[in-house]
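Handout, section B. The chain below has 233 residues.
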Amino acid sequence: MSELKNLKGKLLVEQVEEDLWELIRRTPYRAGQKLPNEYRLSEQFGVSRSTIREAIRSLSSKGILEVRRGSGTYVVEAMLPENDPLGIKDFEDKEVIALDLVEVRLMIEPAMAEAAARNATETEIEELKRLCDLVEEKGLHGENYVEEDIAFHCYVAECSRNKVVEQLIPIIDTAVMMFVNITHKGLLNETIRTHREVVDAIANRDPVGARNSMQMHMTYNRSLILKQIKERK
């Protein structure tokens, strides 16, 4: 019974975290602007102050909020028009837009990994391995790994040596963040395995293997979002 209670509490925190992030983007809050205190937020969202506190802690770990002792909670980075090039914040159905995003990623990220297998330096390959290890380590210990997940995909983009692809990094950032928030990290094992396969193929200078591994990674993502949309309907 206690396990079920803990699971419900965890899911509630994740939902409040998503709602709070949505509030920051839609208001919109500027970087450096102070949020209402925990008491007001708990009244606004209809949850306990401890739930608000956990949601703030999670957003702080992602670099979106900053808690200043004795002062309050401040926005570090908000989803403003200049860093929301696709207008993601304006879409009500986040699962549908997440599906569209992953389908766009299916078009570009396998080719991006293929190019990385041709162009990445040995130093860059070591960095990819490090980021891959961090995702695995944090994920298996129940820690939030979204920043490392984003960094991994963005670094593969850099290793492609394609300047246009590098300009798509903000879109990749948004897509990974949205996917992790919507699916509640439901593909941890698949993420760890396919990340590793991508890195191994790049390290072995295997462009076809890198493309196929990244395509499989994106396909897992797409399948999970489709499943969630079907279950909701």
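Note. The chain is about 70% helix and 5% strand. Compare this with the example in section A.
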